[in-house]
TrEMBL record:
Listed InterPro entries: Beta-barrel_RND_2, MdtA-like_BSH, RND_pump_MFP, YknX-like_C
Keyword entries, A-Z: Coiled coil, Membrane, Transmembrane, Transmembrane helix
PANTHER family reported for this sequence: HLYD FAMILY SECRETION PROTEIN, MULTIDRUG RESISTANCE PROTEIN MDTA
Protein's UniProt name: Efflux RND transporter periplasmic adaptor subunit
Sequence ranges assigned to domain CusB-like beta-barrel in this UniProt record: 253-325
Coiled coil regions, renumbered to chain: 131-189
Location of the YknX-like C-terminal permuted SH3-like domain: 341-407
NCBIfam families: RND_mfp
Transmembrane segment boundaries: 25-47
UniProt family annotation: Belongs to the membrane fusion protein (MFP) (TC 8.A.1) family.
Amino acid sequence: MNNSADLLKELRIDRSAPPPASRRGLWIALAAAAAVLVLALAGWALFGRDNAVEVKTAQVVAIGNGGGSASVLDATGYVVARRMATVSSKITGKVREVLIEEGQSVTAGQVMATLDPIDADAQRDLAAAQVGAARSQIAGVQAQLREAEANAARLGGLVRQQLVSKAQYDQAIAQRDALRAQLNTAQRNAQVASGGLRIAAQGVDNTVVRAPFAGVVIAKAAQPGEIVSPLSAGGGFTRTGIGTIVDMDSLEVEVDVGEAFIGRVQPKMPVEATLNAYPDWKIPAEVIAIIPTADRGKATVKVRIALKQRDARIVPDMGVRVSFLEKAQPANAVAAKPGVLVPAAAIVSRGEGQVAFVVADGKAERRTLKLGRTLGEDREVLDGLAGGDTVVLDPPQGLVDGTAVRVATDEGDSASADASE
């Protein structure tokens, strides 16, 4: 019984014990700390971050050493041929023989293919027969004319002796003149028939397809038994050419230069070309012409470049990179410090000089410049900047040496634009 009483006492609630600790104070402390952190971040955003001036920047580009040929612009393009032709026949006909293969060199006038000449031969034989008939007609009229002239001469003597009538003499004269007219007509018919024979012979020659100029065959388009036509009269089953040849001596380079940089390119400007297939091979070249029209879709201008070196490795449609160069200085010239290209928008006048601001460690650093040439929308800087420097574009008037700056990003610009809309 005592044990049971003790157990019941243990189950009794002890109201004299202190209540458990509350967690309300802990939550209040955490909320206060969070509020302090938010206020600190807001203060940094207002008084720390916004103190930095937002600027747009651009990279400075090195353009090479002054003692050699300096590259002022790089571009990409393709090797093209100024003389390239898909050779076809002048007439529609069936191919009898093809005498070319891809990669074969041909000379001007060399036979590339022949067509079936049956129809052309028949036309030429008919024209030859017409020439023979016209010439035989001339011979018959000439014999009749000789007889008429003799008869007229004889009657002329008799009419003077009054042995024949004047009417007989006049009739003989008229017959002689008629035969002379017939002879003239027969001779003209013979000339026409001869012209027809020459045309028929040309038709036979048209069945032979020849190379219009010397070059290399890059495509073979027809096979024996196929129909070829310069007009593709037979639809998809009719070939329009025998093959394509390229004059390898007419190869040049065409590149598209952006409108913003076309001012750097001039005719006769030296160029260094590098084929994508042979990156270690530098080919000397020269600007031929700047095509006086622009592509509004790509905002580019086409430039033609002549290759000064001929080689079998250069073939049409090859990709090529070109560097437009300034003229090289003499070998004994004093080597100058490498120059750089800087956007003209980064250069401003401060005091009596031209300066630019370089972004370094989040601050603007003022640099005094020594300027050179104007190349399109860029300026050459001879001293004050180095390749790879980051310069501020359109520096605000209040920007000074040591001002904290932050670079504007495209994402921020687009977000601002969306917000304004």
